[in-house]
Every structure is written in structure tokens, then in C-alpha cells.
Amino acid sequence: MKRILPAERAPRPVAPPPIDFAAVFEDLPSPYMILDRDLRFAAANAAYCATTGQTREALIGRGLFEVFPDPGESGRMLRASLDRVLASGAPDSLAFIPYAIPQPPERGGGMAMRYWSAVHTPLKGPDGQVAHIVQNTVDVTELHELRGAGASAPRVGETQLLQRAEEVQRLNASLAEESMHLRDLFMQAPGFMVVFSGPDHRLELVNNAFLKLVGGRALVGEPLIEAMPELVDQGYIALLDQVAETQQPFVGRAALVGLQNSPDAPPEERYLDFVLQPILGADGVTRGIFVEGSDVTDRIAAEAQQKLLLDELNHRVKNTLATVQAIAAQTLRHSPDPAVFRQAFEARIMALSATHNLLTATSWRGAKLRDVLAMELSPYGGERYALDGPEIDLSAPAALALGMLTHELATNAAKYGALSSAGGRVEVRWRLGADMRLELDWVERGGPTVVATSHRGFGSRLIERSLRGELAGQAVLAFHPDGLCCHIELPVAA
Q1: Residue 239 · residue 293 · CB < 8 Å
Q2: What is the CA radius of gyration of the chain?
């Protein structure tokens, strides 16, 4: 029996040696050079140095337009091409450009007009932005000079080829100008715009408004799931998938989106109006999605504030009407004479209105205690009263209650108390006690002798009851012979 030998082991593949790209760049037969973002030379191969008559030492670190200055149309064409690459991140070509370059001494010195065809290709950094520009340039001066007749006449087709190159150059310049104009409109649009491409929704184009919305993050060229991971759990990537699959636009109204302004920051809530529009190719397949929208967070906040103010206004109107109704009923009960009723009722309504005016000046955030007191006492003259105490801010409800209370005390003092006689005077002192509780004393001096009575009119009852209930305060009247005293306690905010 023939013995079967084990199969020989296949030889292991040998890994090819690594490519020395620096040597490849240096040995390329066509002229190449590399510029940084400031258009300074970063590298140049031997073919470029030979074509331009420059040494590498004379180029590296110097500006392109410092080494090869041209303030005319050719210089503007070259700079415009490079600017387009930096702005768009896409290659740009100059099919034909006349450009004079300096000649070394061994070539006679001076400037020599040469004709070139150049391609500018962007090299992007880790952030997706253009970091360098590679220029491949070809000297086509000889082809340009072969346009004449005679012994050195061009071969068949060479003149037409050069003419077509010049026509293409003019067409490219026109198209480039139109393209840059459209790009400027896109970038400067007031609403945010984004173009996604491919099934992973790679960010192909974003405008300035969108960059501002996301904190200026470098997003171009990245899949959405990596560029904006905060959107993963918010359903927006699934929404893009849906638009791509159904090829139906989607309109979002005041959609809540959490967006990060920096990698370490928590998502900030924003409200966005937007449209997701599928981009279809000639074959009917979805190629990408165009997004256009605007940040309406301020509008939503304003609408919420407006609703809050309307609700508060309704509440205040109801409270005010209830107060007016109570004032009318109680004043009528204790003032059967129509003339007396009218005078007392109007005075109390005016006091209520005056406090409203104070609160309106602060958008109903509150009022200062000193202003509330001075408002009711100032009509009697500054020499007739004294106010002593720290600055205290009152809430709107507390200001309304103290305004009405002070009006009743001042009215009573003008009719029967200290303000009814020439030498009378009212002193109001206050302080903040424990637990931020206002303690205020109204003391009348120099008026008629006070006689205590068991009868309590509407004013007395209003004074004693006005601070109870939701204000959790109290007012206690004391009828001393030398003048009425009122002690008030009321909690105030810190």
C-alpha cells in the first residue's frame, strides 16, 4: 500500500516592507509642493525645485506669495483657488494660468513668464478641517509657445488643446465663483442647515448657524452617531432612518432636543423647528438628507412667560374684584349717607390703585416697605410723619395688604387722631425680627386724647383682619390716651 504523506504546509505570506512615503514624494517625476493653512511652504519635492529654480531651503517656512509675488490677476486667481480649497475642503484646479516666477542667477535672473496647469488637493487633519494643501503643477509654457506658425509650428491638435484648456479655465472660474456665492449663502443663512450623506448620516455640510447651535464642534465628515452621541437616545437618528427609508419629508415643530455645547457639558435643552428632506439620486435611491430649521427656544420661553403672566393677571383681577366688592359692601354698611359712602369708597379705591401703581413699576414682583408707607403719608406733609427702619422688599400680596392697612390708619389719624390737629405727628418704626419676620409699630403723638370704645368700624376690622390668612400676619390696635398705636407682624422673604 502506498503511504500517504501529510500535505506540505503552505508557506506563510511575507508582509511587504512598509512604504516610505517621504521617499515616494521626493521621487515623483511631477512637481509637487505642500502648503500649510497660512499658505507657507511645508514641503517641496525635487521636481518642483527643478521646475521653479528654487532650493528647498529657500522655500520651506516662507509664504507662497512671498517667494512668488504677483499683485495682478494671476496672483488673484491662484489665491482664490487656494481659498476655495480651505473653505470647501474640496480639490480645486487651474487648467491654465500665466504666472511669472523669479529666475536664479544661473538662468539670467529677473522674472520669466511661465504658463502653468495646477491642481490643489486638501489634506485634512484629525478634526476634519483642512490642515494642508498639496499642489501638483505642470509647466505648459512650451505648449503655449507652440501656437505660432513656422518651423516650430505645433503638431496637429496641440493648439486646439491649449485653446480648450483656456476655455475650460474660464468656465471653471465662472462655475467656481457661482459655487462660492452659493456656499456663502448656505453658510450665512440665518437658520441652521445640514446635509447628511449615506446610511450612517455622515455630516457632509454644516453652516455657521448649526455650528453655533452645537458649540462649534468639528463635525464634518463624521457619522452622526459619533459626531453627536447625545442624540442616540432621543430618537432623532431613528427619525433620519425613517425619512431615508420612506423618502417622505418630516416637519418638526418646537421639538425638544438636548444638545451639548462642549464634550464634557451636559446636554442643554433647546426647542427647534426643522424640516428633514430626503435627497434622491437619479436612480431614485436616497443619497442623503437635507435639514433646515431654526432655534425657537426664546419664542417658546416667551410664550410660556406670556401664559404665566396671563394666568397671574387673571388671578390678580379676580382678587382685586373681590377686594373692591368687600370694600364696597363694608363701606356701604357703615356709611348709609350716599355722600359719605362715596367719599370713603373712592378714597379706599384710590389707595388700592396707588399700591397697584407701585407694583406695576416692578412688573408686580413686589414693592419696598418705605415706598408703601410714604405713598399714604406724604399727602399730609413730610413734617407730619417719620419713617425709621431698614430697606425691606415686600411681595405683591403683602404690599397690597399693607397699602390698604396704611391707608386706613392714615385716614383714621386724619379724622380722629394725630393728623387731625396741627401739632400731631405719626411715627412708624420697623425692624426684622426672628425668622425674617417684619415687626412694625405705628405710633401717633400730639393728637386729641384717645378714648377707647368697644365699637369697631370697618376700618378697625380691616386693619386687624387684613394680614391674616395666607399672609400669616397680624395687626393689633391699642387705644392709648396719648395716641393710637398699631403693632404689625408679617413674614417677609429673605
Answers
A1: no
A2: 43
C-alpha cell at 273: 423647528
Confidence (pTM): 0.46
- 3-state DSSP assignment of residue 429: strand
Partnered with residue 477 across adjacent β-strands are 486
Task: Decide: 342 and 371 in contact? Cβ < 8 Å.
Answer: no
Q: How confident is the model at residue 166 (pLDDT cuts 50, 70, 90)?
A: low
Question: Which H or E run contains 119?
Answer: strand 111-124
Task: Check for a shared fold between 21-147+156-188 and 192-295.
Answer: yes
Strands 41-44 and 92-102: what pairing? Answer: unpaired
Which CATH number is 300-491 given?
3.30.565.10
Our CA angle for 303, 307, 312, nearest 5°, is 145
Residue 58, phi then psi, degrees to nearest 5: -80, -10
Asked whether the predicted pLDDT for residue 455 surpasses 60, the reply is no
Q: Is the CB of residue 121 less than 8 Å from the CB of residue 91?
A: yes
The pLDDT assigned to 456 comes to 58
**CATH superfamily entry for domain 21-147+156-188:** PAS domain (3.30.450.20)
Identify whether the C-beta of residue 236 lies closer than 8 Å to the C-beta of residue 139. no
Residue 237: its H or E element: helix 236-246
Backbone phi and psi for residue 278, each to the nearest 5 degrees, phi listed first? -65, 145
Q: What pLDDT is recorded for position 156?
A: 46
Indicate the DSSP class of residue 470: G
Angle between helices 396-415 and 338-361 (to 10 degrees): 140
Tell me the domain boundaries of the chain.
21-147+156-188, 192-295, 300-491
Determine how many CB atoms are found less than 10 A away from the CB of residue 101. Answer: 18
Q: Which grid cell is 460?
A: 378697625
**Between 3.20.20.30, 3.30.450.20, 3.40.50.1100, 3.90.1150.10, what CATH number should domain 192-295 receive?**
3.30.450.20
Helix (H) or strand (E) holding 323: helix 297-334
Bridge partners of 443, per DSSP, are 427, 485
Place of cell 397699602: 403
